[in-house]
Structure formats: C-alpha cells, structure tokens
Amino acid sequence: xxxxxxxxxxxxxxxxxxxxxxxxxxxxxxxxxxxxxxxxxxxxxxxxxxxxxxxxxxxxxxxxxxxxxxxxxxxxxxxxxxxxxxxxxxxxxxxxxxxxxxxxxxxxxxxxxxxxxxxxxxxxxxxxxxxxxxxxxxxxxxxxxxxxxxxxxxxxxxxxxxxxxxxxxxxxxxxxxxxxxxxxxxxxxxxxxxxxxxxxxxxxxxxxxxxxxxxxxxxxxxxxxxxxxxxxxxxxxxxxxxxxxxxxxxxxxxxxxxxxxxxxxxxxxxxxxxxxxxxxxxxxxxxxxxxxxxxxxxxxxxxxxxxxxxxxxxxxxxxxxxxxxxxxxxxxxxxxxxxxxxxxxxxxxxxxx
Amino acid sequence: xxxxxxxxxxxxxxxxxxxxxxxxxxxxxxxxxxxxxxxxxxxxxxxxxxxxxxxxxxxxxxxxxxxxxxxxxxxxxxxxxxxxxxxxxxxxxxxxxxxxxxxxxxxxxxxxxxxxxxxxxxxxxxxxxxxxxxxxxxxxxxxxxxxxxxxxxxxxxxxxxxxxxxxxxxxxxxxxxxxxxxxxxxxxxxxxxxxxxxxxxxxxxxxxxxxxxxxxxxxxxxxxxxxxxxxxxxxxxxxxxxxxxxxxxxxxxxxxxxxxxxxxxxxxxxxxxxxxxxxxxxxxxxxxxxxxxxxxxxxxxxxxxxxxxxxxxxxxxxxxxxxxxxxxxxxxxxxxxxxxxxxxxxxxxxxxxxxxxxxxxxxxxxxxxxxxxxxxxxxxxxxxxxxxxxxxxxxxxxxxxxxxxxxxxxxxxxxxxxxxxxxxxxxxxxxxxxxxxxxxxxxxxxxxxxxxxxxxxxxxxxxxxxxxxxxxxxxxxxxxxxxxxxxxxxxxxxxxxxxxxxxxxxxxxxxxxxxxxxxxxxxxxxxxxxxxxxxxxxxxxxxxxxxxxxxxxxxxxxxxxxxxxxxxxxxxxxxxxxxxxxxxxxxxxxxxxxxxxxxxxxxxxxxxxxxxxxxxxxxxxxxxxxxxxxxxxxxxxxxxxxxxxxxxxxxxxxxxxxxxxxxxxxxxxxxxxxxxxxxxxxxxxxxxxxxxxxxxxxxxxxxxxxxxxxxxxxxxxxxxxxxxxxxxxxxxxxxxxx
Lengths: 353, 738
Ligand SMILES: Nc1ncnc2c1ncn2[C@@H]1O[C@H](COP(=O)(O)OP(=O)(O)O)[C@@H](O)[C@H]1O
Ligand SMILES: [Mg+2]
Description:
By secondary structure, chain A is α+β, with helices and mostly antiparallel strands. Chain A has helices spanning about 45-55, 95-100, 105-110, 110-125, 140-155, 170-190, 200-205, 225-230, 235-240; strands at about 10-20, 20-30, 35-40, 60-65, 70, 80-85, 160-165, 190-195, 210-215, 215-220, 245-255, 255-260, 265-270, 275-280, 285-290, 300-305, 310-320, 320-325, 340-345, 350.
C-alpha cells in the first residue's frame, strides 16, 4: 500500500446550512500536515459539523475544502482519504474486533490475509493484541475506543478525525487516553483534527486550537497565544477562567497603555487599542490577596470562600465589581467578611479588543 | 464513462437489438426478429414500427460517450439522453396502443397515425431500465447524492416502480370515471353516477328500502371501529393491569388474524349461525328458537369483522398501555389520588390517542374488508363488494366500478389524513428512555369486572370459531351431518400415486400458484421495501419527503381499489399483463410494499447512523455499506418483511380476486368460489390447510434468514434515541392482518 503520508487541510469560507439553521458560517482555517489541531467551543457551535465536512459526511453548502492541496469539496466520504473516530465509536456490533479493524482494507479489495495482517498491526499498536476474536459488546468502553482508533488507522489515512473521543470515558481514564492519542499522533506523524468542548483537554494536546463560537471561528492559534492574547472576551473567558472588567485607557505610548481600573493604575501592552473605554481580562490566580491598605491595589471584602485542598476559591467584592480569585495560600484562608486588598501579578492580565 | 454505466448501456442495446420488444403471444417466438416477436431494431429497419427509432437514437447518443474521460458535460449529456429517451419511450407507448385508442396526435407525430402495437415485453423493459439508469448515473456524475451511482439508481428505480404500479393504475381509475370510452370528457354522467341514490340514498331511515352503499359502509366501519377498540382496550387492561390467568393465551390470540384469511371467520360464522348452522340447530331443537337468516347482513358482517379485527386493536392498545409510565400513576397516588381517580385523571387521558388510533385502524380495516361482506353480506351491500359486482357481475360496468372505487378511496384517504394530521402531531408516548420503572397501577375492581364481562364471550367465541375451522373440514356437513370423513380433503388434496405422482385434487393448482406467486413476490417486496426504507432514512435527496408520503399513502389504498385499478390499467397496451401470473406478482409486491418499508424504517431506526458513516469513512460506498453493515443488522426487519408479505400473499382476497384467471387461480379466490357454490366443507378444509402452510412458511423463513449475531453477551445495537414506543410502530403487524 502506498503511504500517502499526512496531508494538510484547508477551509476557505466554508458554510453549512440546514434549512434556516446555519451550523457553520464562512469559516476559514488551515491545518498543517502532521499537526494535531483541536476544534474547541461550547456545545452547538458547529464543531461536529465542521469535522463531518472534513470527512465528507456533510457536503458544504458554500466554500472550498482542500485536503493535501486538492479540492475535495464535492467528494463523498468514500472518496476522501480521511478516517474518523466517532463519539459513539460506531463499532459494527455484528463483527469481531478483527473484522471491525480489517473492514477498511476488506472493502477496499485487499485479500483477507493481507487485510487481517494490516488490522493486526494497528491493533497491536493500540495494545489490543489478543482481543481479535471478541465482539464489541464484550469490551470495556476504553477498549472499544481503542478498536475504533485502530480501525481508523488501518488505512493510514491522510487525515484522522476525532469527535469528542473522551466523552464516553470516566474521568480518570481521560487524562491517560488523551496523552496516548497525542503520542500516537506524534510517533506516526499524523494530521489530526480533534473536537472537544473541554478547554483543558485542548490545551493539553494541541499544536493549534481553533476556537469556535456561534458557527464562526472566534480565534485560532497556539495554546499559548490563545491564553495570553485572546482575541475577544469570549475566548478570554472560554480558555481558562477570566474576570472581564470595564477599564479606561488613559493614554497609549509606544504600544503600551496606561489603564485605570477603579482606583488602581496598570500598564499593559495596548494590543492596538486607542485611548478610551476598553475591557480587561484578569485570570483568577493573577489577583494576589494581600492585607488592606496596599498601594495601587483593589480594596475588597471577601463574600465567599471555599477551601479546595491545594487552593482557595474566593469571591471578592471590589469597587470594580465582583471578582473571582484563586489563592494558593491555603495556610491562612480568608473568611467571608474579611477586608483584603488585591494586587496584580506580572502575567495573566490582558486587554481584550 | 464508468464501468457500471457501460453495463447499463449494454443492457439497453441487448433489449433493443436482441430481445423481442413486445410481449410474445402465448410465449411463441414465431417470426422473430419481425412481427409480434420482433426486436426493436428489426422493426424500425423494416419500417414496421418507426416510432421506436428515437429510443434507438438515445442509445446511439449514449454509446458515443463510452470511451470518454469523465468531464462535467458527460454527466449532463447522460442526464439529457436518459431523460429524452424515457420521454420518447413513454410517449410512443401511450400514444400508440390498440386501434382507435391511445393519443392520436402524438401517434401521428411519431409516424404511427392509425397504427396499433401490442403490450411491451422484455426487450422494452430492458431498454427502459437502461435509459433510467443512464439518467440516474448522469445525475450521480453531476454530484447528486454525493456522486453515488447506487443511490441515484435506486431512487430512480423506486420512483419509476411506484409511479408505474401505484400511481398510474390509480390515475387510470380517475380517468375511466371521468372519460368515456370514445375519449370525451363525461362530467355529467360522472356526477350522475357519483351522486346516485344507490350510493348515497337514505331510504333505510324512513324504513322500507335499503340505504346507499356509502352509508352502509360508513355505518359498518364506525360500529366495527368502536367495538374493536372497546374490546381491545378491555383486553389490554386485563392483560397488563391485572394478575389475570391465561395472559399468554390472550397474546397468542393477536397472532391469529395474521395467519387467518379474512373471510374464514365469516365462513365459520355461517357454519355456526347460518340457517343450518351447528348452533342454530341446537337452539332450534332445544330452545325452540326458529331458524333464520339473521347472520346474513349487517349483524353477521359486523360480528365477523369484530372477531377478525379486535386483535389488531388489542395489539395497538397494548403498546399504548405499556407506554404509560407507571411512575406517573405512582406520582398521582403519592399526591393522594385513589385507584379509580388515578385511572380517570391520569391513565385515561394518556390512553386517548391510542384509542383514536385503534378506532381509525378498525374503521379502515372494515372499509377495506371484502371477504366477510362477500360471504355474509346478503342484501347488505358495501362499497368493496359493490365494486366487485360492478366489475365481474352481469352489468360489467367499469365506469360505475371506478366511481365506487373513488368514493371508497376518498373514505380511506380521509381516515389516513385524519390519522396523519391529528394523531401524527400528538405524542403517544410517555416512555422517555430510562429510569421510568415502577409498578403499574392495578385496575380498580369495577373496571376489572366490566372488562371481564366483555372479554370472556369474545374469547370463547374466537375459540369456538377456530375449533370449527379445524374440525369443519373433517365432518360431512357442519351443522347437519357430523359424521367424520376425509372426503373434503380427498376432493381438494388427493394425490394419485398409481403412475408416479399425480396431484389429482381440485385444490392443488391454486395452491401451487399461490405458493409460487408468494415465493416470488415476498422477497421482491422485502427487497424493494428495505431499499426504499434505506433511501428514506439514510439518504438526502430532493423529493425525499414526497416519496415518503407516497409510500405512506399507498397504505390507504384498499385492496379492492388496487385490484380494479390494475385491471383498468393493465389490460391494454402499453402494459398488457392481465391474465398472466406477472400481474399477480406485481399486485402483491405493490400492495405489500408499505409493510416492507415500515419494517425497514422501524429496523433502521434501531441502527445508529454513525455505523453507516463509519463504514463510509472507511472507503465503503453505499452499496457495500448496505450489504456489509446495514443488512446484517437488519435481519429482524428482513424477517418481519418477508413473513408479512408472504402471509399477506396467501391470505389476501380483495386485490387479486379481479386478477385471477382460469390458468392462474389463487387459493383464496378458489375458496371464495367454493363458498359461493355452497361447498363449505371443502372451503373450510382448504382454509385450515392454508393456515398450516403459513405456519410452516414462517418457520422456514425464520430458519433461512438466521439470527443476527451481536456477540455472546446480548447487548443491543447502539441506539440513536430512546426507543419510542408508539402505538403506530405496530403498524406492520396491523397491515399484515388485512
Ligand atoms: N442535520 C442537521 N439538521 C439541522 N440542524 C443541524 C443538523 N446538524 C447540526 N445541526 C445544528 O447545527 C448546529 C451545530 O451543530 P454541531 O456541529 O453538532 O455542534 P457541536 O458539535 O459544536 O456541538 C446546532 O445548532 C445543531 O442544532
Ligand atoms: Mg458535537
């Protein structure tokens, strides 16, 4: 079998409409060959639809889709060199593990022995050697998922797609499986598009994240870019929690802005903003709890305090509104009603356009 | 051009050049390749049928594309070639038929003015198929249905078949009601017939004369609907909400109507309650009640229909009662409601949609029923029997039959419409998936008593009737002479072994024809039904909803109407197949197709769509997916479709009684003939043989198709949604019982 190797994926102004519903609205992005890219966003924002358009299970209403530089917009799923691991795994219940894994090469016309050999290789890769004769109903959820991955890998597709692959696994298993998927992707050098609604999962495995919101791409970039320079309030809030506050930019010099946040004064990169009202995103752990009377801090009163083992969550009432604060100081937990002041950390504060 | 398109083209050329174009008379090939057995090419070249030339030109045009590389314009050209070819095909077929019929101006256009041609045969069929495939492949090349040849072709074939064998015949009824035989529009006589007092007369209200058939039919249908619904409800409540003994027996009773030919109940009633019936005799001798003919007429037909259709209502209402989540009734009880008020305030309102559905089913069944009114009606005429006598009777009035068929069709379509519009929007179900456990509330005692009082006579009567069916064939004359005898079986089923095996009995030919026709048509029904279901549920294409609606609609066509439609449509060219076995096969396939579609849709609903999609992303096309993934998982639905269409082939009377011929007689038609001749013993013996044959057939189908294998641990196939238990899901069973 000639190995095509990983291929890039490109969307150019792609839209998908179901009657009056626009599930995906003029979306453009590129996935480089050999990268793992996640589509991240809240439920119903169009991630699955986007993934299914890559697979060819939905034909785009508008725009162009390119795989490996070739226009595949109107090709059916069977004609694209793309495999998918379904959220429900979609294992064929009437076929054994071996028959499931060998399905791709079998329907492609390979001899039975060759097809089984190819299947066995991938089953071994996912650690399921010895399970060939079982039926899907005789496997645990985690094992079923490995079969689904092996089945998708057997034809060595140019692009491999995962739709929320961890959603049917229990919490403990998720961390391990997501790392296995990442390792597999890197060792086999695969192009992977990965859908999730869990930002932590996305941050952990991705080369690049495409954040979607309301059928559109809100922002795309590396995990670090998204976290440190969110394009808008939605992204800032969705990737890691953030306190979104109204501020006034008093002046901008050399690309840095002087900012008035209630009584406090800050100096941050301006990110192209001019003087005037703006928004700031402050990560909960970038607000540092100190004693009242701190210069250039925000005075506040603790409203709620929850002890969570390795940190304390606080809700603090301040002149700029209610703030969510994560304090690492578990030794002297503040109680509700305490007066405190909040200082600002070096990182985790960013102006959002 | 792809290989399969080339194959389609080859089929077309074979049909055009090699195979006789027309249906040869008596299968003789005299004169081939000219004359009646001529091929299209020979007939065109010899100048005998110049109107077949355009079809040949379409094939030539398609052949010019054979070696070409696939370009957008190839697809477009194929679509046009196929479409124009089809238009030419049908235009000449309908324009030039019998002498002085057809469409004269169109015939002149084709150069066949004043000419005639016989019905189309296999050559024409193959060419038609080829042109259709060409058009569908062209559409696939253009990207329709994601470029899947199988899908577009399957859609094309299904649409053509439904058009040709459902729509066209039904349209022919309209035409023959509205148009005189000389081709003029005859609105006046149409309305005269439509509004005639024999249909709508109200004479019975004033006493004296009979009411019109339409009123008879409606009254009978309403009574049957109400009574079967009440019986079904009482029975469902007793089975599901009491600790009554004999529940299994009650459930077994629901299977009976499926394997009982519809008129057999009527026949048994005659043997019990007729003038010389067994019970009439006992009553006359012991109690002194004079013998009478009360069973012939409304009371008898009603009784027979109630006995025949109550199990259907039972089946539907069982689904409804099961669907009422016990937790709701428990909730009512924790809120302080007593038994009776729980039933009244919670259970009853939830039952209502199911009741309406059961009523409508009984209503439609009664209107469509033909066998019972035929054997028991006496002077009480209903639409279905009136249609029959208009066609086969002395009057031989096809226009009248067509008008009556329109009235009947309007009634059944109306009921269908009500069911769709009104019940379709209501939720029958309270089973939302998981977690709804609990113990169903038991019936209040008064309801138990009422139910039992209603049910016990019914169950007893049913038992007696089936006893009569079993015993009736073994006695000389039920009711008069109860000497045991094998005479009836000997008349019907004697085999002479003196010279090899000779099937001497009078019933053998019709039994063999029935089995042959059933064996051919039920796999076809299942195939077409399941493919249609696959297209409807798994593919997206323009017109999908229309196709879905059409297949649903064909449920509502009563057998009698379909039968009339078939003789009106198919006894003249271009499709002239009356009197052949083929018309029986076609009638069964298209009458039973909705059953196949229903069970296919129900089966596919149990298979998560992501399985198909997984198969597609693994490079399988839709045909491979259908064969390797869907069909193996659809085995239960396949069995259902096969069993029901097989059984319905054997039991149905209404559609085929018009279509049988001396050469191709069917078991039910033969039995009805015996009943009319008063040979009840033979009729009842034959009926019990049929019931046994069906039981064996069902067992064979189950063994033949086999079980679907899902691993050693029984885990259901992944389901897309919580299984919704609606009363309507039982429709295939209901359909089968017709
Ligand atoms: N087949 C469909 N028909 C109509 N609407 C659909 C269909 N599939 C998805 N949608 C709609 O498109 C939107 C995006 O769906 P989806 O891509 O599944 O979201 P996500 O995977 O991000 O949760 C939703 O609003 C959904 O209701
Ligand atoms: Mg999704």
